């Protein structure tokens, strides 16, 4: 069958099940009750602190085929996933599903667990590093599910991703399982991506290297949902968890793109009191924030909130009074951690609150504008952030599709040429975010507006912005770099790309070694 | 009229920058074979720049190449390789006197193809002797389209200390503007070298415009926007210039001799200035905006 973005999909996929095709960004209606986890009890005098992870495995007990979940707030400094899976391997477990919100190079030991059959499937929102390559080569027994950040929360809350045991890397906890992310040696800031896991898993385990006196303060994840606490020597490497300060790019081409994007926001009429904005932490996204900051200062306007991955730059804007609030599902640097701990206007929220399309309202719906990147974009404005032009997995949606769907103005910023390849093509390799949710593409050679947004086109023209038809931009790219040949693999399906509503927007096929 | 508010240097040995040089919207790009390129890379850069001139889309930017100065022995090879690729102009560094211009112009004429429009010369004045000869340089050959000022080498030659405020180059700037105006060509100001100092750049641009420069060299694409803002006519200037032009045409119709606008006498140089402002405003599409503001 063919879905609404023209992708050919099988009706059924072994190891995954029946495929429901993507049918439009807001076409699917939920028709299920919310998931309800087991009811527990804890008697006075009972203790939660266990000696080691092995004791957790035997106490629950964890069996073959279960789903173990993890958050990715420790990014490339995470030590918990590897520790837990090493324990599973030691105990001879097989056929586990790992539901890890994002996978980083540090998680390379997963590859051996795929090979030995300890782990049979991966459920995630973003993958970088050697695990991504291993999946593209078809290593795990079952296809990988690539979700969005909001989609993962939806899948957990709606019972489509049932978590048997959630292992929560906990920067600080107390003996009764209260957790926060703002103190201890591995402080990472917001724990937003662990919230759905903590709320809906059958068992919740806090894994920590920093036990504080009861009761912990502040509390991000409460004792009422945490079954056991395990203290180990070290749960992560702070150097891989948060960076010192996130820098704005100095690359003149990216700065040019950022400046054009900021002018587009202004021309859209959004630089007014109450502006809400999401930018990524990448250098170019931050540069957009710096140009917007200047415009806000010059016109004296005050925004309502900044959303998404939070950096010190956005913290400065909050502290300068340019935004009234920060809504933080994930922090990227030490300044974001400091601010979350100290500033009541810096709010910690969960992934569902941030972006789940199937609840009574998520924050991306309140966004005026989001700035996003792209690995590829096509002339229908569909964006690929999952695979490279070679078809090998190198990322994932994360919050891309969620913020694009929610925001009133979705801007993709991208160099028209990356390396020697045009990023603007007839058909992207893997559709991640549908074109109907993308309004504007900003490149160094000009701005293209989605024909669905003629209102914007008029405003941009009036403002004298360098507007071009998207096919003209593509021609400019091809004049410089030529037309690249595409090489679409016909191998087995190694991953399904799930849209935030649970339908399948595309698939990824095996690429030979 | 060629608008040269911003003239942006692009290192001639950097393929990525050569390819992207057209995206920054500078009035001119200067593909640099001189200071940006180490002696060992001169021939490679020459090939890259020649290829870029033939193949890269520099959009609306004027294409200028800074070749190596006559004392390097590289000038002739540079001209032979570059001129047939049809740049709009060559920027000649360390011009010491009119003889330098005549020598370069002869080499250029020999290198030009039969149908090729003459390549212009922009003379970079960056020595005390060059400055002393500025007017003679400006009038040495019809190809000379502008004088540009290079303050770093100039102050070194002077034995002065270079400062951000630039008192040590005030005389030179004024002298250069005067020489260019006398020869009826444009004067282009020295680059502002602290790329991180936006406020300093804006102040330096304002001073250059006040002194009579028509544009500024730039060493970083980030400076282009500020330079354009500084050297584009303001709403006030456009409205004034239109009043002057209207008064002049009215005076012609009525045969009146003496004309005044806002109580001030109007004569030929003022009319010239007004006409230039209107032309710039037309090129930039600024006229409507002026009244809008």
What does this structure look like?
The complex is a heterodimer of chains A (513) and B (293). Chain A is α/β, with parallel strands linked by helices and 513 residues long. Chain A has 15 helices and 28 strands. Chain A has 2 domains: 47-128 and 142-241, Glutaconate Coenzyme A-transferase; 252-488, Glutaconate Coenzyme A-transferase (3-Layer(aba) Sandwich). Chain A is globular and about 70 Å long. The mean pLDDT of chain A is 95. By secondary structure, chain B is of the alpha/beta class. Chain B folds into 2 domains: 6-231, TIM Barrel; 235-292, no CATH class. Chain B has helices at 15-20, 42-55, 75-82, 98-111, 128-132, 134-138, 151-158, 170-182, 198-211, 224-231, 235-254, 268-284, 287-292; strands at residues 6-11, 28-32, 62-66, 89-92, 120-125, 144-149, 186-189, 215-218, 260-261, 264-265. In chain B, helix 3 runs parallel beside helix 4 (98-111). The radius of gyration of chain B is 20 Å and the shape is globular. The chains are: A alpha/beta (513), B alpha/beta (293).
Helical residues, percent of chain A: 25-40%
Radius of gyration of chain A: 22 Å
Q: What gyration radius of chain B follows from the Cα positions, in whole Å? A: 20 Å
CATH superfamily membership of the largest domain in chain B: Phosphoenolpyruvate-binding domains
**CATH domain class name of the largest domain in chain A:** Alpha Beta
The oligomeric state of the chains shown is heterodimer
Give the N-to-C terminal Cα separation of chain A.
29 Å
Low-confidence stretches of chain A: none
Q: What summary fits the major beta sheet of chain B?
A: 8 strands, parallel, barrel
Question: What percent of residues of chain A are in strands?
Answer: 15-25%
């Amino acid at each position: 069958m063919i879905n609404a973005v023209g992708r050919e999909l099988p009706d059924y996929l072994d190891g995954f099940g029946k495929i429901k095709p993507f049918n439009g960004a807001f076409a699917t209606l939920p028709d299920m009750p919310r998931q309800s986890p087991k009811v527990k009890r804890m008697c006075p005098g009972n203790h939660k602190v266990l000696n080691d992870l092995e004791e957790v495995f035997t106490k629950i007990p964890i069996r073959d085929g279960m789903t173990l979940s993890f958050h990715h707030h420790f990014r490339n400094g995470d030590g918990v996933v590897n520790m837990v899976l090493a324990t599973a391997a030691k105990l001879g477990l097989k056929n586990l599903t790992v539901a890890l919100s994002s996978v980083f190079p540090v998680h390379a030991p997963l590859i051996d667990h795929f090979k030995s059959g300890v782990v049979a499937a991966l459920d995630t929102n973003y993958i970088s590093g050697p695990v991504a390559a291993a999946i593209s080569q078809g290593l795990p027994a079952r296809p990988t599910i690539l979700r969005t950040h909001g989609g993962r929360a939806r899948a957990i809350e709606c019972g489509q991703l049932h978590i048997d045991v959630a292992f929560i890397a906990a920067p600080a906890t107390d003996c009764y399982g209260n957790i926060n992310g703002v103190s201890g040696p591995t402080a990472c800031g917001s724990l937003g991506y662990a919230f759905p896991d903590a709320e809906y898993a059958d068992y919740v385990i806090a894994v920590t290297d920093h036990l504080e006196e009861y009761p912990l303060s502040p509390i991000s994840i409460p004792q009422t949902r945490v079954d056991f606490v395990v203290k180990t020597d070290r749960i992560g490497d702070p150097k891989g968890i948060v960076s010192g300060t996130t820098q704005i790019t100095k690359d003149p081409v990216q700065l040019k793109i950022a400046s054009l994007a900021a002018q587009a926001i202004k021309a859209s009429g959004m630089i007014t009191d109450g502006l809400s904005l999401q930018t990524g932490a990448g250098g170019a996204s931050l540069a957009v924030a710096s140009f917007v900051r200047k415009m806000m200062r010059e016109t004296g306007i005050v925004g309502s909130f900044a959303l998404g991955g939070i950096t010190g730059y956005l913290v400065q804007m909050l502290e300068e009074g340019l935004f009234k609030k920060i809504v933080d599902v994930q922090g990227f640097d030490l300044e974001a951690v400091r601010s979350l701990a100290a500033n009541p206007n810096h709010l910690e929220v969960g992934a569902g609150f941030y972006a789940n399309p199937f609840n009574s309202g998520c924050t991306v719906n309140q966004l005026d504008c989001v700035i996003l990147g792209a690995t590829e974009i096509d002339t229908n404005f569909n964006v690929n952030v999952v695979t490279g032009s070679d078809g090998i997995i190198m990322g994932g949606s994360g919050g891309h599709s969620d913020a694009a769907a929610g925001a009133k103005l979705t801007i993709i910023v991208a160099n028209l040429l990356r390396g020697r390849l045009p990023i603007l093509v007839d058909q992207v390799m893997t559709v991640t975010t549908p074109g109907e949710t993308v309004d504007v593409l900003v490149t160094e050679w000009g701005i293209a507006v989605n024909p669905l947004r003629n209102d914007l086109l008029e405003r941009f023209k009036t403002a004298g912005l360098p507007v071009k038809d998207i096919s003209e931009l593509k021609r400019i790219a091809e004049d410089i770099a030529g037309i690249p040949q595409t090489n679409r693999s016909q191998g087995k399906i190694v991953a399904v790309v799930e849209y935030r509503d649970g339908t399948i927007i595309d698939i990824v096929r095996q690429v030979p070694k | 009229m060629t608008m040269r508010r911003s003239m942006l240097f692009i290192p001639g040995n950097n393929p990525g920058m050569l390819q992207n040089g057209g995206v920054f919207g500078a009035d001119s790009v200067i593909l640099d074979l001189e200071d940006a390129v180490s002696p060992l890379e001169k021939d490679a850069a020459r090939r890259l720049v020649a290829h870029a001139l033939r193949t890269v889309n520099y959009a609306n930017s004027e294409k200028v190449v800074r070749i190596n100065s006559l004392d390097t022995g590289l000038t002739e090879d540079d001209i032979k390789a570059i001129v047939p690729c049809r740049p709009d102009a060559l920027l000649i560094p360390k011009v010491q006197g009119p003889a330098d211009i005549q020598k370069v112009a002869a080499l250029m004429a020999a290198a030009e193809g039969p149908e090729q429009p003459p390549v212009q010369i922009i003379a970079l004045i960056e020595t005390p002797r060059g400055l002393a000869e500025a007017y003679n340089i400006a009038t040495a050959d019809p190809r000379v389209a502008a004088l540009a000022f290079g303050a770093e080498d100039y102050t070194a030659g002077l034995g002065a200390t270079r400062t951000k405020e630039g008192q040590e180059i005030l005389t030179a700037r004024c002298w250069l503007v005067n020489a260019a105006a006398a020869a009826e060509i444009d004067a282009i100001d020295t680059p502002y070298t602290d790329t991180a100092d936006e406020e300093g750049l804006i102040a330096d641009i304002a001073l250059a415009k006040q002194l009579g420069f028509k544009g500024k060299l730039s060493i970083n694409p980030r400076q282009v926007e500020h330079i354009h803002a500084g050297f584009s006519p303001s709403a006030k200037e456009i409205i004034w210039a239109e009043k002057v032009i209207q008064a002049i045409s009215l005076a012609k119709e009525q045969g009146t001799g003496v004309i005044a606008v806002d109580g001030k006498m109007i004569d030929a140089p003022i009319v010239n200035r007004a006409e230039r402002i209107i032309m710039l405003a037309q090129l930039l599409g600024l006229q409507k905006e002026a009244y809008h503001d």
